[in-house]
């Protein structure tokens, strides 16, 4: 039995050039080409043609032929029939047992127009007589090509999604690591604080205990002194009361010495709490100053470890556009329409008025603050760029070029993404904090005064990045701070 591939190749040789289907009632014209009788008949039917004997041209070679000259090709018809028989046998050999639900015959054909599968009985029925009917494998060929194209596109899109999944999973793992680190930092810092607080509590309570004992001791001494004084005064009072009750002769006996003894008696007015002890009590709150200082250090250290690390940024004069005037400490820049006499090095920007920081980052979490002072019509661009960013010629400020920046202009702020986005803010920022999380891929901008979030870019960093600063407009300037 012939193989399915060889049978298919033979079937391709007996296709009608007009309908591209298997020849039906093949006829031959003067030039020798073969066509389906019905296809050639329709080809010869020219609208408005009154002389049927007028010469036509072959659909393939364009040789003239007479409409009535085509002859039945019985030998070719037998070949077509044998080929179809071989194809049917080949399909049976493949074990495809799907039967036509209407006639119960095996399905071998496919109607292109109605997109239905047909058995032999269906094919010979009048409903599909004028349609393009192919064997299943022949009809499946073009669809297989379309499926292959779809598969190529879908696989490409799946790969892109898998890359996104991998990138985002890495970002999530970095964030989880950061959160775990922060958790340990919080636990460690609070454990240290708890130990310090316990120690300080013991110290302060011991001091209060000593104060309490000293107060009770002075209270005991005071009570003893006051009791003695009261006792002496009570004795004098009783003596005078008794003297006063005696007759005149007895009252006047030694009266002067008695009165002198009472009049010269000085009353001591003791204090329950000594001045020194009172000062110690008043000075006790000063003992809590180390606690206050430690709490301040604790909060600063905790916030430092949980937040971004302040970066020390200096402007790089080797990259500065000639219209930017840098301060001697490389912390400030001012725009000038007058070009500076700067050497044209490969590192220097020559079209966009920008400057880079002297140092870049290959990891970590960093933050810096930019004070912006814009004149009317001025603008300032802030963010980060890849180390290999183009320095010469026009440069489009967008992530695709390795640039993640926002632009502060007179009256509005824009994020320069793939398409610039104008941002709605409560207040035009004059002091902007730029924060970089290299591993996660975040470039965040916020108002350093109000802490209002401005914008966050998400990227995937694989090489060194540098802080970038752009400036435009006479009278506009910026300065750097932590």
TrEMBL record:
It is found in: Cytoplasm. Belongs to the TRIM/RBCC family. Residues 293-482 form the B30.2/SPRY domain. This is Tripartite motif-containing 10. Residues 95-136 form the B box-type domain. It comes from Jaculus jaculus. GO terms for biological process: erythrocyte differentiation; host-mediated suppression of symbiont invasion. PANTHER family: E3 UBIQUITIN-PROTEIN LIGASE TRIM. One of its GO terms (cellular component) is cytoplasm. InterPro entries: B30.2/SPRY (IPR001870), B30.2/SPRY_sf (IPR043136), Butyrophylin_SPRY (IPR003879), ConA-like_dom_sf (IPR013320), PRY (IPR006574), SPRY_dom (IPR003877), TRIM/RBCC (IPR050143), Znf_B-box (IPR000315). Residues 16-62 form the RING-type domain. It comes from the Eukaryota. Its main location: cytoplasm. Keywords: Cytoplasm, Metal-binding, Zinc, Zinc-finger.
